[in-house]
Amino acid sequence: MRKMRKTTxxxxxxxxxxxxxxxxxxxxxxxxxxxxxxxxxxTLNVKSTDLKKVLNEIQKQTAYRFLYNQALVNxxxxxxxxxxxxxxxxxxxxxxxxxxxxxxxxxKLIVLxxxxxxxxxxxxxxxxxxxxxxQSGEALAGVSVTxxxxxxxxxxxxxxxxxxxxxxxxxxxxxxxxxxxAQELAIAGRTTxxxxxxxxxxxxxxxxxxxxxxxxxxxxTGSIVKISGKEVAxxxxxxxxxxxxxxxxxxxxxxxxxxxxxxDIRIRGTVSIGQVKPLYVVDGIFQDNINYLNPNDIESIxxxxxxxxxxxxxxxxxxxxxxxxxxxxxxxxxxxxxxxxYGFKTLVDKIKLANASQFQTLFAQERAxxxxxxxxxxxxLTADTDxxxxxxxxxxxxxxxLSITGSTDRNRFxxxxxxTLDEGIIKHEQLQRLLLxxxxxxxxxxxxKVGLNxxxxxxxxxxxxxxxxxxxxxxxPQISAETKPFTTRDPYSGGQVNLNLYxxxxxxxxNSGVINPLVVLENEYDKTKSYEYRSVxxxxxxxxxxxxxxxxxxxxxxxxxxxxxVYTPLYYGYNPRTNLPELINQKTRVNESDQTxxxxxxxxxxxxxxxxxxxxxTLLGGFTTYYFSNFGRNAGITQGxxxxxxxxxxxxxxxQFTDASTSSASSNQTENSTVSYLGRALYNYQxxxxxxxxxxxxxxxxxxxxxxxxxxxxxxxxxxLSKESFMQKVNFFDYLKLKGSVGRLGNQSAFVLGAxxxxxxxxxxxNSSTVAVxxxxxxxxxxxxxxxxxxxxxxxxxxxxxxVEFN
Length: 807
Hints:
The chain is mostly beta strands. The strands form 12 sheets. It has a 14-stranded antiparallel beta sheet. Mean pLDDT is 86; it is low at 1-11 and 20-38.
């Protein structure tokens, strides 16, 4: 009954979350819908001005867009002076006597057509249907279909079909899809258009994410691999990076069997005796893990591997970078999407263990080698158990996501909700996660854009069963994995109780920490309650000025709390030799911990981009800060005269069943920050000679003041030989590029071997096990664990790369 009640509570929580999400979606939809019917006010004061310029000014002041033939507005001058006038009145004034009529459509599109006067005209909408396929005839879902020059658009469904209403038979449709060449087709009076898109021959001109910006892949001198979000969206992994296994050269991923646990990730091998995992950058924010991300919300993943790509990340660049861009709404579309998947996970390459007969043979040989010839007494040890099979199962995985995205010319928003259930291959391991994300971008004007991103999650962490497989491989196969019924004393009430018990071990043969893992697993898996709450958000403002400059400021925050309660119960196992129950634990106990993590980051950058004849130049300068803190509180207490009940409402430190003299408490605190200055230059000549240079100076609170700032840099160059005249007759290569880079990268992790991370390398911790002798007296003493060097600096990695790219 307790399991059913817990499941019901969780389902009720999920249903309430879904209701709130749906209400939020409806509010957003109503907001967008209402915005479409508000009446815009227009102010104009022009004399002898081209009609086209007047129409452009109306577009700037309103959310409306015009569709017309260019010849219709040529050589027409307008005189008008109005203040806060409604749109229809303004249109009547400027079109009167010009031989142009108009119709205002529901999608904020105004169609202009030739007419005898300036009156409204009725435009016959044309409904276009069709199907979009790939080269081999497979249906393409999610292809963007837009009317060129307008905000009218839609996307193909799961079968590649689309339907679109346009106001003019001369409209041109634009079909675009990631990984395929865009295609434009004029309607030319047709109502059915079927399109076959060709796969992009290469990704040379695609835009990729680099540090603090984006760039065309062709303009870079380093090694960056881009993976589409759809490559990870449908894989049975709660962590999206786990799905990249085998997809990127130089990227090593070893996945864990524990649900939700981050895999071991290394880019181009092991570069340090400390931290080896890469830095994650999600929409600009530095992260140590991306457990809060919904794989279905990822637009693309870039893996940065070389010096010229990584030096801009300074003290955190040596181990490589995985940059993630989340999805945004596509222009002119409102899309509601729901997807779900369900799958299974099973153990492969299982450890092969000796069966009972093989074990007896090997054990007899060992005894004989030790001079013992008498046969071993296996009384009570009659099973033949494969202990790997005994503790594993086929795990289930399901992931469901609901999202809505909407876009106008000025505003783009996205809202998503996800639920993940992930079972491990170890019995009773289960992760449950609820996710909510929201993003919005708003164009204040053509020069100013602001926006925000927000992700939040509630996660029920799985029981920590990482020890189970190791324990299982140590148990002799003669121990049974089944239960036997016993009548014994209830350790809580003292009365008689009927229990199904698991076997203990033959302690005469197996001891020193060897246990039957099922005894612990089956009695303790539901006695741990661990929940994580995490929210990650950012706000930004971007200003374009003087044609070639872009200034951007972004502030990020990442706050999470992990609360765990662990109850140690009383339970039995039976002795296989005597066939009698034995009590495992003598006393009950409760342990509770809270871990709070706070990360704050701010980036302020200025970008300059310009072309001077054959010269192309992009410059970046910036200032950034990063703050990290962890505050932990841990406490435990043991029972007093009576056992702490096996009921989770008593699994707290103050439960009236505990002995105050057994209480223990501890805490841990960590705070550190960095302040950084950075710069980068991307230059190419005639789009065939490329030079990249980047620099970053990092100041850290974790390093002595005299060495607090440390500099990192990289220089890269490339030559696109296939554009040279002497290569024009070489038909073997369509594209050939030589490249190389060199740089100094940093790693700010610090570890004490065998003892974990070292938070303040220049401030040694104290050793309390030391003693001091004064005369005949021995006193407790403290001394420093190590002596730090005044020349202490962060780890540096000098990296070089030389390579060739060709198609």
